[in-house]
């Protein structure tokens, strides 16, 4: 078992969805149930592999790359099929493997127009390969390929199954991210050519562990700054950070529910993960110089996202803007360059993935029942569909950072970490950031509770007064219960994640002064 | 007295030039096929004209055999005093030309047979043009390069004007011809200047003149620039691109496919052998020239492509922009030995991938326009609903052209980026950023075609499936497999590109 996992565990997790997709390709389009079964079985198989990986993981040495595989891939440039899992990637991989089957279950009876379950589920499986691949890749080029691979299915998912403005939204989504990636590839190559060992020999490697060990040694500061800027564009757009966030509300609003959930739960994390895994460890000097800028943009994002939320009339768009704010906390945690802040950031990624994913699920179901998400046409959800109403209340509480639920552990430590930034960063500046970020939580409580009030409280509007609204379906239960449970469990036992991430985070920050 | 001296000088010293039949075998097979094609066309009736395409196809594949045996033999062969060299570079590219020629035959079979065109002559022209390209891959001599160029251009002029009863067809042929002849004139003038300065037409000899610094004379520099401008026309680099869109639109679509890949690649091959073997000492002058050319080509091609409403014109401008990407690495040529090597690898990788992907895309265009009968992008609406396989294949090609993994194009783009960054020069980094911006602009129009195929409604509500002829299906299938296989395992192409080294580099 152990040998099998070591040799094939990760490869199976990454490529099983592709196998499923190939099988589906061979099945005619009309066999809809068969398609659903194949997709679900595939994603459950991946989940099972994930459970085995989690089970067998050595939690005492999370800084060490486990289940590592190192094979030659493109010999000419020494790019390798180098994959492995450490404490930083483990929670995110687990999140991905969990969310995908839930999304497939949720889809069971409500496929968005124009239906076509075959293509839709195929895209979800391709997406899963891309996401898991990104989190396990330990080679910059391999990472880049998976990072880009994610774009394709998402583009089609938004563009084909999306809402009114889907064409515009999908194009914007694609071009924004592609622009970031194009600049990132220049940075990746610059690292490849400029990395030298202490004896002055060129490393010519894309391997992330090796490059993190190198840590920008011998690189001129100005060069490090420029290279970091390339990574910053690539990852910052994906996060998305203010002012590159404008693709996000459009994409989220137009995407089908399943797309929104995956986008919120996993895709946004690819950007923040990139910072934690690649940009900061490989270019600590660049990170140090950029940290104040990142911190500033993060708090602007927090406040701007909150204000944006207050101005929204569409439920889904509101949740999308709240994502901008929440990812601001994550980025603030990363910008402190302390193990504490980075740990909080990773926790924040997982928590945001679960909570916002949940919110998008509910929004999708509201849309399904009422055929609108316009807040002022909704109301009295608690009367018409009490279970959904309560769950909305629960998710809103989790999202605004109520202690005892997962959201709290993403936000609070991030703010706290900004009080004591590491790596010789300007303390006063970061304390100011912390204050502003703390103010942001007040806003968050404001817009989220206001949303809850308008949607769930009161009586239904005249429009829907007499209508029978179906409360939760069976598929809703199956899809949502695991997420709710995890939100509670992680809220009560945050150590579950902190314990996993800590060693790896400390290791990744080894080149920074003061840590 | 005079006569006697002449006789004395002439008679005993004649040596039969050494003739390496094996080295010339690919060309000889092609010449044989051309002759056979011609004879069959003369002696058969109208009904059996279809044999021409089979003969031509078999001839192309047969010519690949000696390419493989030569590759297996693995020695550089020099003929005619260095004017004709069979090295790894020429073998890889000859192979590419033959494959491209074969795929073009597959593209043409149905199209030419259904149209009221002269079939036998068409394949004759196609074979002659391919012959010119194969010669180009090995030519290392100004005259040889020029002859190869004309050998491939003159049939191409005729093929471009093949639809002789339409005005656009005439325009296509005429424009291409006039522009092509003008370019040849400029190039020939440049060559004469270089010959005048160095006293040789053999590239190797020109390259070794560097130390004597005659090549740094202004007149020689002018010659180099003229020669490069001549080829800039061939590869449709901006500002010498204006023949391309009209020619591409007016020519029969299979011919457009052929022009946009094979004849363009032949231009790049010539540029590579000229620059690497002949003008390496003048890299300082060539770099900025190519830099400007490449930046203009990418940007102008991309921006104009954004506004196209005809799919063939879109691909015309896309191929202009792609030419910019192929040229871009040459802007750091000669910065260091490492970057010279990377530039060569990048260009060869790019042309290999681009050739197959673009031929695949044109196969889809031909298949779709058989049904719609027009090249309007709007007529592609909702292709996914009634021809999912074609739409998905096209998506793969478009993503490849846009450079998105896992379609093969990402590796071509990546190699181009690698090359420009490898020089560690400011010009290179600036080029990298320009390329990054341009690859996003390019995605703008590739995605707009994608949007039409996947997200728009079928224009007239007619959703009868498209019947794809077998030959076209083969091309599409092969190209899709290539695109995905190379996208996932770039080693398949990188080994070829890495091996495609030129013999007789100065200083090696």
Spatial order of the strands in the main sheet of chain A? 1-2
Rounded average pLDDT of chain A:
90
The major sheet of chain B is characterized as:
2 strands, antiparallel
Instruction: Report Rg of chain B.
Output: 23 Å
Distance between the termini of chain B: 47 Å
Strands of chain B, count: 2
Helix-strand pattern of chain B, N to C?
HHHEEHHHHHHHHHHHHHHHHH
Helical content band of chain B: over 70%
Helix-and-strand structural type of chain A: mainly alpha
Structural class of chain B: mainly alpha
Terminal Cα separation of chain A, in Å? 37 Å
The percent range for strand residues of chain A is under 5%
**Looking across the biggest beta sheet of chain B, what order are the strands in?**
1-2
| Mean model confidence by pLDDT of chain B | 87
Q: How many individual helices of chain A?
A: 20
Number of strands of chain A: 2
Estimate nothing, just give the exact number of structural domains of chain A.
1
Number of helices of chain B: 20
Rough shape of chain A? globular
Unreliable spans of chain B are none
Taken from the alpha-carbon principal axes, the silhouette of chain B is globular
